[in-house]
Design goal:
The chain has 2 helices and 2 strands, in the order ββαα. By secondary structure, it is α+β, with helices and mostly antiparallel strands.
Length: about 90
């Protein structure tokens, strides 16, 4: 079972896959930790920077999910009518 969120924007379908985001989040955090360790020489400082990167990325992900949910709900509440189906042998 894949967890994903789908939104339609300008006719194109976009998806946010949580497992893919999770791998990218940890890879980014690992990269930040390596950078912080090289710059500061402290494991604790590297851990702090990596934790901060994880928090910022998670807040950003939640913000994007909320935006997708908000865009999915139309404030107009109106649906466009479906075009008639001409294969039903009914005269229109």
């Amino acid at each position: 079972m894949k967890a994903f969120y789908v939104a339609r924007t300008s006719g194109a379908e976009q998806a946010m896959y949580f497992p893919q985001f999770l791998v990218g989040m940890f890879a980014t955090s690992f990269g930040v930790a390596i950078w912080a360790y090289i710059v500061t020489g402290s494991i604790w400082s590297a851990f702090g920077w990596a934790l901060l990167a994880l928090i910022i990325l998670q807040v950003g992900y939640i913000g994007l999910v909320l935006r997708l949910i908000y865009k999915r709900v139309s404030p107009r509440g109106e649906a466009s009518p479906a075009p008639p189906y001409y294969g039903d042998r009914v005269r229109h």
